Amino acid sequence: MIPPPFTYAAPASLEEALALLQQHGPMAKILAGGHSLLPMMKLRLLEPEVLIDLRRVPGLADIREENGYLHIGAMVREVELEEHPLIREKYPLLHETTRWIADPQVRNMGTVGGNLAHGDPGNDHPATMMAYDAQFVVVGPRGERVIPAREFFLDFYTTALESDEILTAIRIPTPPPRSGGAYEKLERKVGDYAAAAVAVQLSLAEDGTLSYVGIGLTNVAHVPLFAARSCAHLQGQRPTPERIDEAARMASEDCNPRSDLRGSAEYKRAMVRELTHRAFRRALERAQG
Length: 289
Ligand code: FAD
Known about the structure:
By secondary structure, the chain is an alpha+beta fold. It is 36% helix and 25% strand. It has helices spanning 14-24, 37-42, 78-83, 85-90, 92-100, 104-109, 112-117, 125-132, 228-234, 241-254, 265-288, and strands at residues 7-9, 28-31, 50-53, 63-66, 69-73, 135-140, 143-148, 153-155, 158-159, 166-173, 179-186, 196-204, 210-218, 225-226. The site of flavin-adenine dinucleotide has 30 residues, from strand 2, helix 2, helix 7 and strand 10.
């Protein structure tokens, strides 16, 4: 399949990229790794007239800890997250999530910013970013704004990003000691999008109660979901088997999956309950060291 004709621009600065977005309006699209955008163009689901490639824009590909956050530039590729020692050691939830994405070819090109900006409920990073309570840094003609991950995903393939804005970075709060996270994904075959997946990030207080719990759900609604009721049920409490089971039951009740080739809605709900259990157990083991 061949995409419709388009003009290609490769700006050398963020200012130039923003100016091009303003000039061409909704007929322009940002190009990052191209692994969601180009397939959609080939299927003629999107027909942008101008592609604005961010690859030459400096400052969008850093990974560093700064002021209590892990800063990840939007153009960081999945393979860079996967191989970064800091992420492997201190951010196991993010490391695991990245490794579950597609296959090495996709991870060599796909970017974390593209994965989030696309707004696909089947993508793996959104649930993880909600579990971490991450923030997204966005720049547009009105300046910079910071959008919490939990407020970013508005509808099916629709995010809080305006058409003249660029996602420049993701900020993940650095977890305190006695923290752990895990991602559990059920896929029909290796490299597929999730039939269902669950991201859990938690921290333990000195007395063994949960000082932080974040749970995100992938591909079990028309948007990535934050399991708010489950988190509220666990926050400040001891992680007893009964409490964890009740939180997992709430997550399966609060999602809204569709029956499709990856399974019936009923099956996916049951899997959300099971995957929440598994992810929580592994996150807790990591927090307990
Ligand atoms: P692009 O395709 O370049 O862009 C995607 C969208 O985001 C476009 O609308 C673009 O305009 C916009 N955009 C990109 N960057 C920015 C920015 N900085 N600011 C504003 N807008 C921006 N993903 C998963 O999570 N899990 C999977 O299991 C999975 N399986 C896949 C299997 C295959 C075969 C393929 C082809 C893809 C798969 N993906 C999967 C998707 C993959 O992770 C994509 O790379 C990702 O969704 C998009 O990232 P990208 O950098 O390629 O973005």
